[in-house]
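Predict the 3D structure for this chain.
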Amino acid sequence: MCVLTSYYCSVAENQQCPVCLETFPGDMLAVHASSCGETVDVTLHVDEDRDSKTLDEALGQVFDTFSSTWEIAVIRRHFRKTSMEQLDDGCEEDWGKKLKIRFIGEEGIDEGGLSREFFTMLFRESQVFEDSLFSADADLLSKQHYKLMGKVTAMALLSGHPGPRCLEQHLVDFIVLGKSPDMSRLCTDVIKRQDVMHAIEQIQKVSDQSEGDVNVEHVDLLDQVNFRRRVTKSNKEEAVEAIKAHFLMYRCLPGLLQYMEGLKVNSVLDILKKYPESKKYFIKPSGSLSASEVMGMYSSSFSKNDDEKSDEEMVIYNMHQFLKNVERGRVTTVHIDIYAEDTQEDTKEVTVTMEQVFQSLTGCAHAPSNLAGSIYFDHLSAVLSSVNTCVPSINFSSIKDLRTYKTMEAHMLHIIFGTLGVGIV
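Done. Predicted structure below.
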């Protein structure tokens, strides 16, 4: 067994292992090193550029170089069609500009909030992402649509959007770390095809008695995944790994590679590869933000008047109670979707989620970078409370009424479902 003692590398370049002489991305060499020696002491030398800035600062530095704007106007009820037409019509120079979004027929000037909403809707509507994987669509591939969505993702991250956050860990590791997955460790739960799951189940249980039937029933599927041997008890795990590799990785690899090509716009992919923590932009979250975490992102502008401050404190208390109830799945409402294609489904009772709350407050379902929101209190107005997604803030009105929890819940539900662009998650 060889011994690798200490080796310095740059995370930005491919490096050769001095023991086995294989080449790896710099940020993967330390992981690889353990397979080359019993005693391993690998010191990773990080680029000075990486060491001096945070990920947000590195992306923000690129965004600050944009001196002009690319104005995009879309129709909400025809969002997919109009947004794709606008983006397809962009020239190379446009991808080096700040996006300024306008929803035709709606009031609102884009100071960041409309852009976040635009990106959120794109990620939700996109045919690129499919069940936390990438789709395998030859037509989208030929139209370079995966590359387009890679560019969109890059622009979203530069704009402070938290990213698509919908992909499985092994795909994110491939994008950010250049790491190929260990197929034996991948979970099959994300494969939504019943025929594939049925085949895996039968192959895993194959016996001398069932061997013939299993091979006959699944011969086409096995041929599709390039496993062209007879399945037996001794090689069944290899057959299962071949199926997993195809449906969890290789089937969507052309689209994934094209998407990564799009991420190179404005050198965003290079930046992401320098910061392993950039995986947060792509990986599917394991849970929602808590009520306390959301409250911690907002500071309250309390009055110096004791009577007014007493009312304001009760408002904040009721808001926290509302968020806790959302967190526990206790808030339901009847939601009318004015854009539903199926008129039978336009009205339904829904359970409010924290993602919907955040969508309404910031324009995206997850926390944007460096969110520092504000809460204001309007003691004079009796109108419903409102939000500003561009400079994240909440303006509470009818303060005396909001001392009652039910009124607070009604105001928050109006914000979430009563305004165009929210309640869309």
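Confidence is low (pLDDT under 50) at residues 1-13, 27-48, 421-425.
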